Every structure is written in C-alpha cells, then in structure tokens.
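About this split. The held-out portion is used to measure sequence recovery: a designer receives only the structure tokens and must propose an amino acid at every position. Recovery is the fraction of positions where the proposal matches the reference. Here is one held-out target exactly as it appears in the evaluation file.
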C-alpha cells in the first residue's frame, strides 16, 4: 500500500510554450508538417498530449504562435514614430523594430517561416492576422499622408510594404543571411 508521501509534492512542472514550439518547428522543418503528428511533438518535447493541446489546440497554432509578438512590436513602434516623419520612413523604422527578434527567438522564427513557406495551406491560417496588420498599415499611411483609407495609392503602398517585408523575412529564413531586421531594411530600401 502506498502512502500519500510517495507522490511528488509542490507545484506541477511548468511547460515553456516557446520551447515546445521550437521542438515542433524543428520537427516540421526536418520531416515535413504533414508527416509530424501532435503525438510526435508531445513525445519529442517531453510533455503529455493533454498538456500540448492545452497550450496549442492544433498543429497550425504551433507554427503561427510568434506573429503576435511581431505585430505588437511593429504596432508599438509605428505609434511611437515622430509626427514629422514621412509614412515610408516611419514604416521602415517600425518594420525594422518589428523584425528585430530577440536572440532566443531567431531560430524559432527561421523554422516558422520555413515551415509556412513549405506548406502554403498554413498561409491561409494566418490570413486574418496578416490582414489585420495590413489594415493597420493602411490606416497609418492614410492618416500620416492626409488621405482616405480608401485611396488606391494608400492601399498599394501599404500592401507593397507588407509584401516586401514578408518576402524579405521568408528570404532570410531560407537563405540564412544576417539578421532578419537588416534583411527587411534592405528589402524596404529597394522600394524607395
């Protein structure tokens, strides 16, 4: 007969979602997104299936988890740009800050972007977040330039900047050249 003193005491082990996400993204990148199951991720990360699903309701959530941090950094940086700065300069500066990932997030970001690129169906999962970000850029450009958000020029500039930044980050993930913020900055400079 076992006593209650045989059970572990104290708080249950805390699971680091970023560490679990990195394990999953490495697996997806190496073996293919469709070839890796949530059970495979749980086993490789050393967590229970139940804990994994509590943190990430599906495989796509393991991939798209970092977009919120980028969006927050970018949005905060955009709102802090001086009013005297032109919209292209303000957006370039905000994108540079948004794409400046903390050192411990660079590998995760690289794997995330590689997995999204290799699996076009995942792009649709992130469409709402990307559209929201683009809408924020459109509002910013319209306000900064004293134009309507319905103006064709505003929409084209906003979408061109968003597409260039996205293309730059994907290129960086695939080619491994330098820091992501430097690559985004170089890409946006090409639009000038």
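Reference sequence for scoring:
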């Amino acid at each position: 007969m076992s006593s209650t003193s045989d059970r572990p005491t104290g708080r249950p082990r805390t699971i680091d979602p970023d560490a679990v996400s990195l394990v999953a993204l490495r697996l997806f990148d190496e073996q293919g997104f469709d070839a890796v199951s949530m059970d495979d991720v749980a086993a490789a990360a050393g967590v229970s299936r139940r804990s994994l699903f509590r943190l990430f309701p599906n495989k796509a959530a393991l991939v798209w988890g970092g977009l919120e941090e980028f969006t927050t950094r970018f949005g905060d940086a955009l709102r802090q740009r001086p009013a005297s700065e032109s919209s292209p300069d303000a957006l370039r500066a905000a994108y540079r800050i948004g794409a400046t990932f903390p050192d411990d997030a660079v590998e995760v970001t690289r794997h995330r972007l590689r997995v999204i690129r290799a699996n076009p169906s995942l792009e649709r999962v992130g469409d709402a977040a990307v559209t929201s970000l683009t809408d924020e850029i459109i509002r910013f450009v319209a306000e900064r330039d004293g134009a309507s958000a319905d103006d064709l020029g505003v929409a084209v500039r906003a979408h061109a900047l968003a597409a260039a930044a996205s293309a730059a980050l994907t290129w960086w993930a695939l080619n491994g050249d330098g820091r992501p913020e430097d690559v985004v900055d170089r890409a946006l400079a090409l639009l000038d």
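Annotator remark: The chain has eleven helices and no strands.
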